[in-house]
UniProtKB/TrEMBL annotation:
It comes from the Bacteria. This is Large ribosomal subunit protein uL1. Keywords: Repressor, Ribonucleoprotein, Ribosomal protein, RNA-binding, rRNA-binding, Translation regulation, tRNA-binding. PANTHER family: 54S RIBOSOMAL PROTEIN L1, MITOCHONDRIAL, LARGE RIBOSOMAL SUBUNIT PROTEIN UL1M.
């Protein structure tokens, strides 16, 4: 059954032309089409020329958004001994050992990022069923398996995000709030593009960037000119 498009979205879609926009033009349009009754996020949907079923074409990494996410990030830490107290002192919203693992097994998911120390990973591995579908399983690539829990907590709370390409090779990631200035959104989007280029999988062949679309949470998709985004210098975005 076809999904019904609301009248509000139909009206907003009329404002978007079927063409790639210059990055700052696209972001101004994103802001203009963020008309929902709640503070919408800014989303990027990036199609890459990769096939993640091959291990050398997978993309999973982190980006530090210079202007932050605009969200309050709840960080949980699974550690043992003095590392639990260290995590709490560093600002973790939840910290614990085996008892926290049991709480998560029972369905407690009151966090956005889960950090674990390497010595706890054998026990954390059994949480795959709970954490996997939500993309919350700690991983060294994602910066969420570390003994330096204090740094990890501060980085994620300051705007560090983990993201990955889905099985069709598309990256879906938030890069701020629609209420940010277009300039701040551009700085965050540029940081995301740089990170994706820097972490290009070794098996990626041919054209790496296929398309980039941005939107507000409840807004229409707006195509961004990929070449213009990649050619942009950070000083131009600042």
């Amino acid at each position: 059954m076809a999904k019904k498009v609301s009248r509000r979205l139909q009206e907003l879609q009329k404002k978007v032309e079927d063409r790639p926009y210059e990055p700052v033009e696209a972001l101004n349009l994103l802001k203009e089409t963020a008309t929902a009754k709640f503070p919408e996020s800014a989303e990027a949907h990036i199609r890459l020329g990769i096939d993640p079923k091959y291990t050398d074409q997978q993309l999973r990494t982190t980006v530090a958004l210079p202007k932050g996410t605009g969200q309050v990030i709840r960080v949980a830490v699974i550690a043992r001994g003095e590392k639990v107290a260290e995590a709490a002192a560093a600002g973790a919203d939840i910290s614990g050992s085996e008892e926290l693992i049991e709480d998560i097994q029972k369905g407690m998911m009151d966090f956005d990022v889960l950090v674990a120390t390497p010595d706890m990973m054998p026990q954390v591995a059994k949480l795959g069923r709970q954490l996997g579908p939500r993309g919350l399983m700690p991983s060294p690539k994602g910066g969420t398996v570390t003994f330096d829990v204090a740094s990890a907590i501060s980085e994620f709370k300051a705007g560090k995000l983990e993201f990955r390409a889905d099985r069709t090779g598309i990256v879906h990631v938030l890069f701020g709030k629609a209420g940010f200035s277009a300039e701040d959104l551009l700085i965050n989007l540029k940081a995301l593009q740089d990170t994706i280029d820097r972490n290009r999988p070794s098996g990626a062949k041919g054209r790496y960037w296929r398309s980039v679309y941005v939107s507000a949470t409840m807004g229409p998709a707006i195509q961004v000119d990929v070449s213009a985004l990649r050619d942009l210098k950070v000083s131009d975005a600042a």
